[in-house]
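Help!! Second protein's tokens look totally different from the first
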Amino acid sequence: FVVTILFLALIVLTPRHWEPSQENWHKWAAARILRETGEFPLFAMGPLYVVYLLLFSWIKYPFSVTLEYFITHMFSYIAIYLLLQHFVRRRYAVLLTVAWIPHLAVIEPGGVLVGIGFVCLYLMPGKSTLRNQGYLPPALVAAALCHTVYFAFLGGHFVGTLLEARHQILFRFRIFSFGKTTSKNIIAGAIRIILLLLMSAVVIFPFS
């Protein structure tokens, strides 16, 4: 029901005749270069967002751009709602999310909006290896790989985690630490490895 409301609000409140900005077209061009040459964009381009655009680059324009827009925005709106409903009643969380749609609808490039969604997942209360635990939590790493502005959040978390562990005699670099062997921990570890491999690919196979 909430997803339906957010989807309808997205349709109604999105400005008519919206088109991607020049900065967003650069991301689409990077996705095309990645598809045709296998060369990864620089960190400044948001490599994870470019890989995400690669999924839509096989679809004909303008449907590819429209589909990506709706999926990207729905992801972010749902993530914002999931965060808000921990602090206010669900109906108020829906209203607040809808109220922000006119502003969020024109935020570009899309990597910024995807990053907002990942940061909201990171900020949700409770500990989770998939969101906010470890020195490199998957949610924040994903946000940073979508847009460089989120590297500040990732760096803050990393430093905070170091300070939290300062009382330990032995420093444990828990990037790949799964803890107990549970499916969630294994998935979290796999996500970290995939994201780190993407970071490595940007260095090994950069744009020429």
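Here's the second one for comparison:
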Amino acid sequence: WLALDPDLIIHYNIVNNMPGILDNAIRKSGMRDGWRGRVRELAAKSKLLTCLFPNWFRPPEAYVAEEIKVLANVCFAKMAEQAQAKGAALAVASFAVPDVNSISSCERIYFDYSFHTFPLARATTADYNWAMGLYNQTVREYCQESGVLYIPVAENFSGGVDTFTDICHMRLRGIELKARIMADHLEAFVRGRLERYREESSMQVVSPM
């Protein structure tokens, strides 16, 4: 992307990385180790048990947050460094998901069967909201500490099947809403860049013909 000489790079993606993040968290937390791990893996095949005890199949929050921090410290930090070297800025946006608290039961069933993100057991939309909530929180804190621009898309976004085609891809209504949120929160940055360009242009000496 830097070959296009951009002023700004916006990062909006995590769903493809989440299975790896969760699997690393499960492995490092020892959830598969010993007899408890074997029992957990057997229990994960039961839809009843995964519905009754969802937290038993989720990796500990601290391990998930740590994996996300590793991603941020490696990927985002490198992206920001390379962008800055080319005179561009990096902005990281939180990731919007179908809101489990506002959608209907039919919508939840639809979204529940549209993905399989968790390594141990088939996840639900509630599990997905939990994982993405951890991502958004961790990335927001990272941006506050590092100075990377942060765009609160998820915090200002809600919707169900009217907005999403599945757990991450959006319909036109969702795309327009996401674009509006980004534009609103980047307005000050864009105005600042335009003002800087005007000042630089006014300082250039134009040679007479």
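Reply: Different proteins will give different token patterns, so don't panic. The two ends are 37 Å apart (CA to CA).
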